[in-house]
Amino acid sequence: MQWFASRLTIRSLLLAATFAAPLSGRLGAQDTSSAKPPSRYRTRVLGVFDDQSGEPLEGVRVLDVLNGVSAVTTKTGTVSLAFLPDGGSMVRLQHIGFATQTFMVKISPADTAPLTIMMSHVAELPKVVTTDSSPKYLSPRLRGFASRMKTESGYFIDEATLRKNDGRSVANLLMTKPGVQIHRGMSSSAYIWRSPRCANGGPPQVYLDGVALSPLKTDDPAQIGATKANSRTVFGMKTAESPDDPDLLPFNLADFNISDLAGIEWYPDGTTVPAEFSHTSGRCGALMLWTRER
Asked: Are residues 150 and 211 both part of a single domain?
């Protein structure tokens, strides 16, 4: 019995070996066939070079525009296009100091040749625009100016426009507005006279940050002439023969600098002046100047 058991065991082992050999061979054949090398067209190469020096460009971003995948060129200026899908895609080349290029690249068995791209320098880099998300502080007086600019019927010059005209005079900038009459005097003086829209009264009242100002009297002929010219009211009747009448004295706009101002309001006659700035003087209209918050 012992001899019979031994023969049975040996026979079982031989049968197991016989069936195992072809099975392992089949499995091995399957593993080998699944590890196929990548097709040649899938490893198409792109080379990028400086069009002036001919040197390879390292660090050029090569972007697949359609799916957002990208790669970067090496020191040799080359990059594998294996990340592009079969058939190809739209490719964009980006590098600081060079003009961006966008073009179509084919990926197929018929398109395997390396691509050579020359990138040209840009004369000027595009401007970087930054925005400040924090709200800009405005004092109550400038908030009032901004509010009236939306609701009142006067004429307004905002801070952005004033800053663009820092080198000009207030008189020159105001002359673009309807109803403004400027008369030049000695040196650089520029007196604002009564608007043609006023049937009576003197020159407009000038306010600085909401405070009514008083004009300085000089011996400038232009100021004296304006005072006499403004001494007429309704029906041409004179209210004052003397240039000493303070309501008839015009303001010299040369006393104010655009570089100090954040806003200007101009109301050419009494009917357009906001209620909070109405006045009982003999002047007609109003010019409001608001200083900048540096």
From this structure: yes
The pTM assigned to this predicted structure is 0.50
Could you give the angle at the alpha carbon of 284 between the alpha carbons of 280 and 290, nearest 5°?
A: 90
Report the alpha-carbon distance of residue 217 to residue 224 in Å, rounded.
Answer: 9
Domain that holds residue 201: 140-291
What pLDDT band is residue 120 in, cutting at 50, 70 and 90?
very high
Whose structure tokens read 């097709």? 39
Count: domains in the chain? 2
- Contact between residue 212 and residue 276 where contact means Cβ atoms under 8 Å apart: no
Angle, alpha carbons 112-113-117 (nearest 5°):
125
pLDDT of residue 112: 87
Question: Tokens 């952005």 label which residue?
Answer: 160
Closest CA to 82 of 58, 109, 107: 107
- 195 burial type by CB count under 10 A (0-12 exposed, 13-18 middle, 19+ buried): buried
Tell me: pLDDT of 285 over 80: yes
Cα 36 to Cα 57: distance, rounded to the nearest angstrom: 33
Q: For residues 256 and 208, give the distance between their C-alpha atoms in angstroms, rounded to a whole number.
A: 10
Domain shared by 144 and 48, yes or no: no
DSSP type of residue 176 = T
* β-bridge mates for residue 108, sequence order: 111
Q: How far is residue 1's CA from residue 108's CA, in Å, rounded to a whole number?
A: 72
H helix runs in 114-218, sequence order: 140-151, 159-164, 170-174
CA distance between the termini of the chain: 113
Check if the beta carbon of residue 61 is closer than 8 Å to that of residue 77.
Answer: no
**Rg of the chain's alpha carbons, rounded to an integer?**
43
Decide which of 62, 89, 119 is a domain's last residue: 119
Strands 190-193, 205-208: pairing is: unpaired
**C-alpha angle with apex 57: 55 to 60, nearest 5 degrees?**
165
